[in-house]
Fold this sequence. Notes:
alpha/beta, Diaminopimelate Epimerase, Chain A, domain 1, CBS-domain, 6 domains, eight-stranded mixed beta sheet, six-stranded parallel beta sheet, globular
Amino acid sequence: MPPETPFNTVITCHANADFDALAAMIAVSKLYPGAALVFPGTQESSLKDYFIQSAMYLFNFKSLKDLDLNAVRLLVVVDTRQRSRLAHVEPLFALPDLQIHLYDHHPATDDALDASLDIYEAWGATTSIIVAKLKEKALTVSPDEATIMGLGIFEDTGGFTFKSTTEHDFEAAAWLRTMGMDLDVIRDIMSRELSTEQVAILSELIDSATTHTINGVDIVIAEVVLDTYVGDFALLTHKLMDMENIRVLFAIGHMGDRIQLVARSKVQEVDVGVVCSSFGGGGHAYAASASIKDRTISQVKDELFALLYSLINPQMVVRDFMSSPVVRIKAAQSVVQAAEVMVRYGLKALPVVEYGDQVCGIIENSVAEKAVGHGLGDERVTEYMLEDFHFVTEDQDLYQVMEIILGHRQRLVPVLRGQELVGVITRTDLINLMVQEPARIPESLLSDKRQEKNIRQILLERLPKDIVSLLQLAGQTGQELDVAVYAVGGFVRDMLLGIPNDDIDLVVEGDGIAFAQNLGRKLGARVRPHLKFRTAVLILPGGQKIDVATARLEYYEYPAALPIVELSSLKMDLYRRDFSINTLAIHLCPPHFGRLVDFFGGQQDIKDGVIRVLHSLSFVEDPTRIIRAIRFEQRFQFKIGGQTERLIKNAVRLNIFQKLSGARIRHELRLLAEDSAPLDAFIRMRDLGLLQEIHPLLHFPQTKEALLEEIERVITWYKLLFREEAPDIWIVYFLGLVSGFDTHQVQALTSRLRFPPKRIELVESTRRQLRYVAMQLAQWGKNGGSAADLYDILSPLSLEGLLYTMAKQRKLELKKAVSHYLTHLQDVGILVTGSDIKKMGLEPGPRFANILRAVKRAVLNGEVRTREDQLKYARRMAASLQGQEPKAVS
């Protein structure tokens, strides 16, 4: 076939096109004969089906990849003017001489295209605008074309019922009727029966619909959570509006990996096009939509509320609602003084000021009270204030305040005039201002509200089937016992990060031990309860362990104390945890299986790669969290947040580690050494002053980093051998840390860290042997010693001593020698036994051992291999000892 004639004109519309966009493309093609129509696709299944069955046969639709882009001179865009909604034709915008013509009924936005021809009318449908042009030019259309164009007008005007409908839309439809527009086809498509699935979704939307009166305007918000995308969500929105006689509706559908927002308005006060544009979508004042990624339904609703409060009454500015004059505390004052001021005035937070009236931070009442309770009331308030805070000016609108309180969870927002503090707006102020009843409060403003997101599909994709089945069984067991069951902590965190982890922790809002016993019977598992802490461990037949805890609250009587446990809720159980990334929970009970619960912003911190504590006294209550923070930071390549790092430095300054038992510190150091990046973690601890805070001798100079780095390489190498014998990695690093120390210094460290007696003996004996081994190994290398000599030198060492010795060697040939011993020589055995030697006529005694040792040396040196060769060698040795000819042994 001859090549197709290149097209110099391309017609297109916005992504996720509706009937009006399709109809407008077909209509405008009559004004640009010979143009190629590039359709971006749609998520509305009915439109897709109709388009495939009808439009593809009738019109000149092409794929952009099939066109010669260099030949294109003109791009005609209908039903949008936003470049962000035209990603499918993005390559055309790079053409140097491209002209653009626009036909649209949506007003201009910030990312509107520059066009040489811009046809804009505020009519009900873009198709009506183009039909008017066809009528002016006395052009005609076929009945099929007229029907498709009429379908676009009918949809975008809501059957001529939307307030956006104009007389021009009626006139366009009347003209199309004269061209043969088939009303039966339009009626069938616009009012077709719903499928069973659609009816179920519509029912859920109706059940979830809530009305919120915002500055005198009733707003209905409905939501639904689905595993996958479901077509015709816009159709269901139309149906819901008609059935319930709703004037403003926002329908939110969580579908797969994104949230679909469809909005409709019949009132002038609410411009849904502006609202959806803020979410990256588009539309006009009365009908709009957006496709939103990387946010939960609750986050979308919170932002939606903030937008509506700002847009419906945009004259609401900070000056009119701030509290003034401001109660404040000076930076030089103490925590106890701040607590007293807050109690006196009934405040939840105070701005901290310095240099006259410049705000330097915010101190919260809950933090101050805890600090006083821990005996830290005399500390300066600056030690526990929030340094990284947000502020507003008097002329800003309340939307900025809402963003700070909702998005950043900042309880109090200072209002500044220049650098001067002139007012504050608190979380309580915002609640009182926004609503008259709790049902209308954005969810992030309520302390007991949780952020939820359905991640069932992610769970099914990323977890092995046996783990999924186990979690489902746990959820079913909880449902039978009428208790809520959640998977929590590191298991959830690692699943979201795509890291394998079968270390399952469950939390039960009820009797955790009773639940564990019930689940254990179903799994055939042994159950070990711990009555004091209301926890249990399930040990499955294959050896896997599942930890079960009763939702509980831990509180600390004094800094670094062990926790005291009380029954509590899931939220309080999660609040006791160390970092926000470990506070996520997954609901396991039907019908909520797979719902992710996020009270403390853990999802966002995982996305941002931040390690963040939940409150300012976290490290004071449990200093071991500092080591864990560093371990997680290095493992995940995250960053400790600025406020969290400041709290670490403050805890070090207060000598909090001195209150910790050596055993707890040693346990955390062992975990750190066994993690994925121990050297970086040790260096981070040193640079923060933590190692020397544990004990001054632990502070290692940069000159020792090379040895520790080599230890890390050697341990990584050994792990890749997959040998059965596993070393105590912490001991290997400890040998590196105490390299060059005398015996008394090492004893001081093992005493501070409460090493068990066996580990003390391992360290001391290994250090004694290392001095001898180092000299012998150097001599062996100098003299070119045999494999048997190498075996004799290294065999007395423990595995930890061998790995340390290998790392310590500077000469490559000696490093290879230790490697050869670990991979080959230490496994060498002999095929001659004591019974064989007895048959040679020797009586048992020291000579037996000498003969066996000689045979092994011969095997190590490659002098003998088979059993027969070894027996001959042993007979010669026996004969020499007896002074006679060797005897044969059968």
